[in-house]
Amino acid sequence: MRTELSMNPLTSGPFYQNTMKIVEDAGRLVNLNPNALERLRYPRRAIVVNVPVKMDDGRLKIFTGYRVQHNQMLGPFKGGIRYHENVDLSEVAALAALMTFKNSLLGLPLGGGKGGVQVNPSLLSKNELENLTRHFTSEIAPFIGPDKDIPAPDVGTDSQTMAWMLDTYSVESGYSQTGVVTGKPIEIGGSLGRESATGLGVVYTTQKALMVKDLKMSEARIAIQGFGKVGMHTAIEAYALGARVVAVSDVSGGIYTEKGLNIPDLVRYVKENKVVKGFPGAEPISNEDLLELPVDVLAPCALEGVITGENAGRIKAKIIAEGANGPCTREADEILHKNGVMVCPDILANGGGVVVSYFEWVQDIVWLFWTEEEVRNKLREVMFKAFDTVYNFSQKSEVNMRTAAMGTSLERLQRAMMLRGSAW
Ligand code: NAD
Fold first, then answer.
1. CB of 234 shorter than 6 A to ligand 1
2. Residue 47: what are its φ and ψ, rounded to 5°?
3. Burial letters for 27-65: b for 16+ Cβ neighbours within 10 Å, e otherwise?
4. 46 beta partners
5. Gap from CA of 228 to ligand 1 centroid (Å)
6. What 8-state DSSP symbol labels residue 6?
7. Nearest residue CA, atom 40 of ligand 1?
8. Is 303 near ligand 1, meaning CB less than 6 Å away?
9. CB atoms within 10 A of CB 349
């Protein structure tokens, strides 16, 4: 009999349990070995740290941080670091598990990990953020490393965060260790094309999904929730291919115009004003209403759990490309599938980020750096192949794309576990 996920603080959260239901469904489909399944249901290790930070006003404040290492059957743990006030242990564990399945699906020699600190980064000064990042890195340093566990940016962190992590880890090692993080600035070992990689991957996936639906990118109408690292680059890349981006949003709310937003102008506007709100020539729209617009493609690129059993029936998009991790709940999935909406799941659609993180890690090992064109071409090859594999699986087994993606991923993980003797 299987153990209860609800009894363990790592696995008890709704996002984690939702993720494991997808694993169990797909596991039944591919006859997953019960020992392999039991192993995948639990993260291997979790580190919880309380980080002291010297604030600008002289006070000392404690922030709680996590690093969860889910599975390393295929290679070193790999996954982002999130700074957000709602971060908790089980959310980080769910995100770590998704990384295991994403890396397996994409054929990368990497396992799954994720980290996070419970903090609203917009309330901290740059100095305080550096302080926090350096202390957090010191605390988790024994557990990370270029061959062990390689962090990257996620919500609320960026290339500057990675530069501080790299520096702190290198100082403690006594020599420069560029391979300890990815998503770092180009000047210190970053890869060309990493910044746009997740958004570009969302667009490559969308291109393929549109083809299946007999639609063209140059004629598609797209709405994007979230205008951060993923959402903004999804908009830039889709616009460059001629798509009409009719709405985007961020934490301040959304903007909409039927004729399509001028994305280069919007990017300049956001650089100056920090938010999309108030962009000239567009009308305001709420984050909730944006999701229900009659568009060809909806790309949720902010946070998890935004499409639920409550609003899924009102979604009019033909395709959902999950830029964010876990934006659709299980209840939503069932309704969307019944209504014929093609959901390109997170572990496929937003995999471009970790693919180029992998490219960055490889370039750091050999000290030979690729052109942006090489990076983009190699990324397209991986994303198109992954889409075809998942789509063919979904057609053959008559299941939705999420179950097909997870089934493909589990088959590879199972083979690795059997070969290593980790499941029997
Ligand atoms: P980010 O911090 O750069 O951007 C997040 C965006 O979401 C911002 O525009 C923010 O204003 C908006 N947002 C926050 N709360 C919101 C709310 N309640 N409603 C609407 N918008 C809101 O983060 P990111 O790196 O773009 O990550 C976004 C999602 O993509 C996350 O789920 C993350 O795990 C996933 N993801 C990121 C990467 C990556 O390479 N950065 C890779 C794969 C998946």
1. no
2. -115, 125
3. bebbebbeebbebbbbbbebbebebebeeeeeeeeebbb
4. 68
5. 6
6. G
7. 353
8. yes
9. 34
**Cα 300 to ligand 1 centroid, rounded to whole Å:** 9
Atom index in ligand 1 nearest the CA of residue 327 equals 32
The angle subtended at Cα 214 by Cα 211 and Cα 217, nearest 5°, is 55
> What is the chain's pLDDT, residue by residue, as a tens digit (424 residues)?
567 898 899 999 999 999 999 999 999 999 999 999 999 999 999 999 999 999 999 999 999 999 999 999 999 999 999 999 999 999 999 999 999 999 999 999 999 999 999 999 999 999 999 999 999 999 999 999 999 999 999 999 999 999 999 999 999 999 999 999 999 999 999 999 999 999 999 999 999 999 999 999 999 999 999 999 999 999 999 999 999 999 999 999 999 999 999 999 999 999 999 999 999 999 999 999 999 999 999 999 999 999 999 999 999 999 999 999 999 999 999 999 999 999 999 999 999 999 999 999 999 999 999 999 999 999 999 999 999 999 999 999 999 999 999 999 999 999 999 999 988 8
Burial tier of 336 (Cβ tally within 10 Å: 0-12, 13-18, 19+): buried
Q: Dig out the tokens for 309 from the structure.
A: 């059993």
The sheet carrying 297-300 orders its strands as 283-285, 253-256, 244-250, 221-225, 297-300, 319-321, 342-344
CA of 324 to the centre of ligand 1 (A): 6
Q: How far is the CA of 418 from the centre of ligand 1 (A)?
A: 36
DSSP letters spanning 94-107: HHHHHHHHHHHHTT
**3-class secondary-structure state, position 70:** strand
Q: Which residues contact 73 (CB under 8 A, 6 or more apart)?
A: 100, 111, 413, 416, 417, 420, 422
- What CA–CA distances, in Å, run from 286 to 113, 129, 196, 261, 266? 33, 30, 26, 16, 18
Residue-level pLDDT at 4: 87
The residue with tokens 């180029």 is 356
Ligand 1: which atom is nearest the Cα of residue 304? 32
Query: Per the structure block, which two tokens stand in for 103?
Result: 């890396």
d(C-alpha 278, C-alpha 285), whole Å: 11
Q: What angle do CA 262, 266, 268 make, to 5 degrees?
A: 125
Q: Is the CB of 292 under 6 A from ligand 1?
A: no
Residue type, 200: L
* CA separation for the pair 424, 421 (Å, rounded): 7
